[in-house]
Design goal:
Layout: E1 4-10, E2 17-19, E3 26-28, H1 31-37, E4 46-52, H2 64-76, E5 83-87, H3 93-103, E6 104-105, E7 111-114, H4 127-139, E8 152-156, E9 159-162, E10 167-168, E11 177-178, E12 186-188, E13 192-194, E14 208-209, E15 217-221, H5 228-235, E16 242-247, H6 257-268, E17 272-277, H7 293-298, E18 301-302, H8 308-320, H9 325-332
Parallel strand pairs: 1-4, 1-5, 5-7, 7-8, 15-16, 16-17, 17-18
Antiparallel strand pairs: 2-3, 6-14, 8-9, 9-12, 10-11, 12-13
Helix pairs in contact: 2-3, 3-8, 5-6
């Protein structure tokens, strides 16, 4: 089989940082320095290319425009490479992975996001294994040359997850990510074991890169004792188009009439409200309890088993396509690329 080609896209983050031996300060490295730190790359039967943000950014500073830029880079080089590895800070990786899954319509090549908890030059770093295996996953194909994982995924610490199903669960452990409502796509041990039933099927056809995200979306986390006036203030933000309410349990919230009235006012102004659970796993079941019946009556959309990251970026994506209210409701309730269980 012909040698596979992989483009490494460095956006920023710990994995691509190298400590200056004199000052100890971290600075971004290029592909040449990356190969110096990971000599194992020379032994992989893969042709590597690289592109980098002109100014690498911490993932905490990642914005929707940056997600679009990553998608554009993939689109520009799509015909030249068999797969893509995006090096990214772990803090907001789940948001970027979710956004890319929507922006890259018709994707049939791997886009694997990875990062690390320690810089690549550190002796105990997790960066080498994450990078090497991410490249291996991006290069994997069948006897016909079709990608084994033709979707956006996150690889971290021996596990491959669907990108729009991931959440970061720990600030320090190497096992930083989980997929609470969807099985792993692959597990890395002595062998890479793929769960082919969990991976999106290969799709024929061209890639369409969407280039618009609308960031007029907010998130309000409910908590016991939350004041209706505070919610009213947040929902009065000029230009606000949609809000994700992170609710209790299976989608429950206060029954306080003042709380419900504030939500009704927002709905009457045309603001789309989405109900997503705060729980790590499980799904929203609006109307199961009386504490969520008001959401049903107000036309609040259920995120079902979507992560908050997937719900927020999906709203930004759909609003960026200029959809009307009815189209937005229909689009949010429909699985675009496996982000929600049908």
């Amino acid at each position: 089989m012909n040698q596979r080609s992989i483009l490494i896209i460095y956006t920023g983050g710990t994995i691509g940082m190298l400590a200056d031996p004199r000052t100890g300060a971290l600075r971004p490295m290029d592909l040449a320095h990356l190969e110096e730190q990971v000599p194992e790359l020379d032994r992989m039967n893969v042709r590597l290319g690289s592109r980098s943000f002109e100014t690498p950014i911490d993932s905490s500073d990642m914005r929707p425009a940056d997600w679009v830029r990553i998608a554009q880079i993939i689109g520009e080089d799509y015909e030249s490479y068999d797969g893509f590895v995006v090096l990214h800070g772990s803090d907001t990786m789940a948001y970027t992975a979710s956004a890319l899954s929507y922006l890259l319509e018709g994707l049939n090549k791997p886009v694997i996001l990875t990062g690390s908890q320690l810089p690549i030059g550190t002796i105990r770093t997790d960066a080498k294994e994450n990078l090497i295996t991410a490249i291996e996953v991006a290069a994997a194909c069948d006897e016909h040359g079709r990608a084994t994982v033709p979707e956006v995924a996150v690889y971290f610490e021996y596990s491959l997850y669907r990108g729009n199903r991931t959440v970061k669960v720990h600030a320090e452990r190497f096992e930083a990510f989980r997929s609470p409502n969807y099985p792993r796509l692959a597990e890395a041990g002595v062998h890479l074991k793929y769960d082919r039933s969990a991976i999106l099927p290969f799709r024929e056809g061209p890639l369409k890169v969407h280039e618009h995200m609308n960031d007029q979306v907010g998130v309000i986390r409910l908590f016991p004792g939350i004041r209706a006036e505070w919610i009213r203030h947040a929902l009065s933000t000029p230009g606000l188009r949609a809000v994700v309410l992170t609710t209790f349990g299976s989608g429950n919230g206060p029954t306080d009439p003042a709380f419900v009235a504030v939500l009704r006012e927002a709905r009457e102004r045309g603001i789309t409200l989405v109900n997503a659970t705060q729980c790590f796993g499980g799904q929203v079941e609006q109307g199961r309890y009386t504490t969520s019946q008001a959401f049903v009556e107000l036309g609040v959309l259920s995120a079902k088993d979507m992560t908050v990251e997937a719900a927020v970026t999906k709203l930004m994506f759909l609003l960026g396509q200029g959809l009307g209210t009815n189209e937005l409701v229909e689009g949010f309730g429909t699985s675009i690329c496996g982000e929600v269980t049908a």
